[in-house]
């Protein structure tokens, strides 16, 4: 049996790795792009807590909803009793009104599950 040249085996390995990463793991670097494109207009993740149209998202993953000092949250969000686990954030950014009907995040939602998991991965690095 003829062995394949090393370069061709390497090409297969690279292809397999690329396929695995695009199909599976959340990626904080891609999440940073999603954040810039979809969230940064209203949210900052800087450690020097800064509220824009929306509250600072610095350290938001795992935190109870409505805790950022100086941000005027909606009554719906304050009363939600939610903690921002990755699952809850995912549901919220998919369809904000489905999670907090009287909330005031005016965002159409991210329908792509990969974009949601990437941006949440990015948010977990912001703490
Ligand atoms: C048009 C402005 C706008 C955009 C775009 C937006 N948000 Fe928001 N976001 C808000 C506002 C306003 C609130 C406060 C909602 C309330 O009080 O009901 C909020 C609240 C939140 C909260 C709850 C924070 C807390 O302290 O309880 C999370 C999490 C969040 N947004 C994530 C995101 C993510 C992730 C994106 C991008 C995928 C995004 N938002 C896009 C305006 C926005």
Topology readout:
Elements: H1 6-23, H2 28-38, H3 75-78, H4 86-94, H5 96-99, H6 113-125
Kindly list the characteristics that best describe this protein.
127 residues; mainly alpha; Cytochrome Bc1 Complex, Chain D, domain 2; 6 helices; binds heme C
How many strands in all? 0
Low-confidence stretches: none
* H/E series: HHHHHH
Terminal residue distance? 55 Å
CATH class assignment:
Mainly Alpha
* Contiguous helical run count: 6
Number of domains: 1
The CATH homologous superfamily name equals Cytochrome c-like domain
Shape: elongated
Radius of gyration: 19 Å
Bound molecules: heme C
The proportion of strand residues reads under 5%
Helix content: 40-55%
Structural class of the helices, strands and pairings? mainly alpha
């Amino acid at each position: 049996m003829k062995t394949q040249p090393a370069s061709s085996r390497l090409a297969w390995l690279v292809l397999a790795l690329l396929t695995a990463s695009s199909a599976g793991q959340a990626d904080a670097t891609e999440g940073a792009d999603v954040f810039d494109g979809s969230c940064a207009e209203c949210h900052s993740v800087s450690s020097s807590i800064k509220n824009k149209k929306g509250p600072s998202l610095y350290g938001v993953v795992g935190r109870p909803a409505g805790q950022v000092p100086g941000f005027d949250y909606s009554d719906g969000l304050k009363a939600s009793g939610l903690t921002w686990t990755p699952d809850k954030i995912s549901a919220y950014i998919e369809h904000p009104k489905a999670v907090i009907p009287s909330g005031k995040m005016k965002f159409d939602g991210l329908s792509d599950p990969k974009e949601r998991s990437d941006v949440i991965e990015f948010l977990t690095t912001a703490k």
